[in-house]
UniProtKB/TrEMBL annotation:
<feature type="binding site">
    <location>
        <position position="161"/>
    </location>
    <ligand>
        <name>molybdate</name>
    </ligand>
</feature>
<dbReference type="GO" id="GO:0015689">
    <property type="term" value="P:molybdate ion transport"/>
</dbReference>
<feature type="signal peptide">
    <location>
        <begin position="1"/>
        <end position="22"/>
    </location>
</feature>
<dbReference type="Pfam" id="PF13531">
    <property type="entry name" value="SBP_bac_11"/>
</dbReference>
<dbReference type="GO" id="GO:0030973">
    <property type="term" value="F:molybdate ion binding"/>
</dbReference>
<keyword id="KW-0479">Metal-binding</keyword>
<comment type="similarity">
    <text>Belongs to the bacterial solute-binding protein ModA family.</text>
</comment>
<dbReference type="InterPro" id="IPR005950">
    <property type="entry name" value="ModA"/>
</dbReference>
<feature type="binding site">
    <location>
        <position position="54"/>
    </location>
    <ligand>
        <name>molybdate</name>
    </ligand>
</feature>
<protein>
    <submittedName>
        <fullName>Molybdate ABC transporter substrate-binding protein</fullName>
    </submittedName>
</protein>
<dbReference type="InterPro" id="IPR050682">
    <property type="entry name" value="ModA/WtpA"/>
</dbReference>
<dbReference type="InterPro" id="IPR044084">
    <property type="entry name" value="AvModA-like_subst-bd"/>
</dbReference>
<keyword id="KW-0732">Signal</keyword>
<keyword id="KW-0500">Molybdenum</keyword>
<dbReference type="GO" id="GO:0046872">
    <property type="term" value="F:metal ion binding"/>
</dbReference>
Length: 243
């Protein structure tokens, strides 16, 4: 109850024309385009975005962080807040993420996850497998493909998915990243530098969002929430590799 009261008080601190959104790190690749489209006719409005792993943001919200919308990288972390009374409605899917195996060096990506067993693959970068849904999906894929036992010693972990690509471009031979991370990077070629991970190997990355309590009557928050479900937003998500 104390946390709920704190959220209500905090919500009043920001004006109706300014909100803060908690977004999973993978959204960092597309959020500027989403904001640009939404705010193009709303010069007086402002949206601040905090990017981190979904698990970390979930914990922040439980501890009283003042956010209006939570855009998670899966349904679990969003619905957990519904179960704990931080929102009135269950999470809604706003996009489906695509997991990609990436290498800065040209490789035979047609081999799929079997490639990870090669002796010249010393480090494989993944996101945190407890708090980052793309890391959770990567681990699930390794286990379902029955390669985990052979490659577990090669795994290196980034705190969130946004830290994996820098690893893969420097200290690791392979990285497991969202497809959205490769938008605009035309120097990398499908089948040679990256390949989509077989979707049957991991639980679909249905990304869920919630409108947090205290913001049900905030016009900017509700308008942006509804925009994220609109055809305009879906078109942008698709451009950035989401389904």
């Amino acid at each position: 109850m104390k946390k709920f009261i704190f959220l209500l008080i905090s919500a009043c601190i920001l004006s109706a024309s300014e909100i803060r959104v908690a977004a999973a790190a993978n959204i960092g690749y597309v959020i500027d385009e989403l904001k640009k489209e939404f705010l193009k006719d709303r010069a007086d409005d402002k949206i601040e975005v905090a990017l981190a792993s979904s698990g970390k943001l979930n914990t922040q919200i439980k501890n009283g962080a003042n956010y209006s919308i939570f855009m998670a990288a899966n349904m679990k972390f969003a619905n957990d807040l519904y179960d704990n009374g931080f929102t009135n409605n269950k999470a809604e899917i706003y996009a489906r993420g695509v997991l990609v195996m990436f290498s800065a060096k040209t490789r035979d990506m047609s081999r799929g996850l079997e490639l990870l067993k090669d002796k010249d693959i010393h480090k494989i970068a993944v996101a945190n497998t407890k708090t980052a849904p793309y890391g959770i999906a990567s681990l699930e894929a390794f286990k379902n493909a029955k390669v985990f036992d052979e490659i577990s010693s090669k795994l290196v972990y980034a705190e969130s998915i946004s830290g994996v690509l820098p690893y893969a471009l420097s200290a690791a031979e392979i990285g497991f990243i969202p497809k959205s991370a490769l938008v605009g990077k035309n120097e990398y070629i499908a089948g040679k530098n990256y390949i989509e991970v077989d979707k049957s190997l991991y639980t679909p990355l249905d990304q869920g969002m919630i409108l947090l309590k205290g913001y049900e009557d905030n016009k900017l928050a509700t308008d942006f929430y509804n925009f994220l479900k609109s055809d305009r937003a879906k078109k942008i998500f698709k451009t950035y590799g989401y389904e």
